[in-house]
Amino acid sequence: MLKVATWNVNGVRARAQQVVDWLRAERPDVVCLQEVKASPEQIPAELCALPEYFCYWHGHKGYSGVALHLSRETFGARPHFAHPGFDHETRIVTARAGQLLFASVYVPNGGKDFPAKVSFLDALAEFAAGARAEGLQLVLCGDLNVAREERDVHPELRKPQQTGQTAPERAQLERVISHGLVDLSRKSYPDDDRLFSWWAPWRNFREKNIGWRLDYVLANERLAERALSCEIARDVGTSDHGPVIACFDIEVPRAEPAPDGEGEPPPPGAAAPGSGQLSLF
User: Fold this and answer.
1) Is position 257 within any domain?
2) Could you report the per-residue pLDDT of 20-53, keeping only the tens digit for each?
3) What number of helices (H) and strands (E) belong to the chain?
4) Domain contains 101
5) Which domain holds residue 104?
6) Handedness of CA 18, 20, 24, 28 (dihedral sign)
7) Interhelix angle for 114-133 vs 167-177, to 10°?
8) Contact (CB, 8 A) for 34 and 105
9) What does 87-128 look like in DSSP terms, one character per residue?
10) 192 is annotated as an active-site residue
11) Distance (Å, rounded) from C-alpha 281 to C-alpha 273?
């Protein structure tokens, strides 16, 4: 069995112990984190080099950032971690094992720079199309910052012109999904109109489940056929997002070892190859 988990932690330094406890409880084979808000050297010691995982942190101080960790026991060798050319602001990292391609993604919110969100979603669709053309089995996880359907926003919060709910953004998300992907939360719960993963941190919205669905596990159609479950955890941690965990009944291929030095996190202050990230001083 393969267990894939994704969580927008909204600041990993503030929730380090929560993440450690969650990983110990769930023991996922693949861990995707978003909105890390920390550079690699700022990651708390208990998280920076988890002994059970090949770890990759991709972020900088106070903003954005993603991580991707693969189980040592499951995958056997450290894979090559990479960044598609459209990566900016440390928003995507990938890793490959056999024909499996994992991606941890944090789409821009778009509230302050909507064109950047449009550009990123367009590029993400091209990335998904490319993976399909290569015959790869893509598992794309993360905070995509778009509520896919009207029912993916609580009735009290629906505003068709609000960023994250607009028709053009939804059309862009459908373009991503159309390249051979399946929305596993919706596959598991096709009739659930309260399937939310983000709740504003006020007025007890989380306790009342008044929220949006912004976090996804999207899987290649062949993988989706072997999906056993996909659950959103509303009772985990103090982030404004809940983790999403998907399980698959598949035999996991071993990762091809990355060439020496490849796939390692960049040194402090350096840009990851191909990331489009400016060096930090």
Assistant:
1) no
2) 999 999 999 999 999 999 999 999 999 988 999 9
3) 8, 12
4) yes
5) 2-248
6) positive
7) 20
8) yes
9) --SS-EEEEEETTEEEEEEE----SS-HHHHHHHHHHHHHHH
10) no
11) 17
Q: Is 209 left (phi over 0), alpha (psi -120 to 50) or beta?
A: left
pTM of the model: 0.92
Q: Which amino acid is at 45?
A: A
Query: Which letter does DSSP use for residue 280 in this model?
Result: P
124-143 pLDDT, tens digit each: 999 999 999 999 999 999 99
* Residue (of 64, 134, 148) closest to 104 by Cα position: 64
The answer to whether position 272 is within a domain reads no
- Neighbour count for residue 20 (Cβ, 10 Å): 14
Beta strands 63-71 and 53-60: pairing type? antiparallel
Selected catalytic residue, list 143, 152, 215, 240: 143
First-to-last alpha carbon distance for the chain, in angstroms, is: 43
CATH number at residue 108: 3.60.10.10
How distant, in Å, are the alpha carbons of 95, 123, 175, 267 from that of 129?
17, 10, 9, 32
Give domain status of residue 207, yes or no: yes
pLDDT tens sequence across 100-125: 999 999 999 999 999 999 999 999 99
Number of domains into which the chain is organized: 1
